[in-house]
Amino acid sequence: MKKIAILRCLDTSAACAGTGCLRAFNEKSEGFKGYAGQEVQLAAMWTCNGCGDNKLANQEGIEKKIARMVKNNISAVHVSHCTCKKNAAGEEIRCPVIIDICRKLEVAGVAVIDGTHGQKATGERLKLS
Q: What is the distance between the alpha carbons of residues 7 and 113, in angstroms, rounded to a whole number?
C-alpha cells in the first residue's frame, strides 16, 4: 500500500479545514486520480512552518517533519494549491518556502506531486526548476 501525505500552507490552515483535499483524496479525484484502483493511505497532513510575519520560531521543525516522512515510508507528498499565491501582476506563484521544502523532500527520496484538488491539480510530479 502506498502512503502519501498532503502539504499545505500554515496561513491558509487558519481558515481551511482541509475538506477539499480530503474529499479529493477519498474520491481519488483531481490531484489523486492517478491512484484510481490502487490501495492508498493518507498517512500525514501537515503544514509548512510559515513565512513572512507568520513564520514560526521553530524552523528546524521542518527538518523533523521531512525526517518523519522518510521514516514513515511516505512515497509521495501532494502539495496543495493553497501554497500558491498571486503576485503583484496577478500571476499565481508557489511560495518559495514551500519550494524549499519540496526540494528537501526530493533529496530525501520522497516524490513531490502537484496538487490535491481544484482545476490546477495535475497529480503529476512537481517541476522544481
A: 10
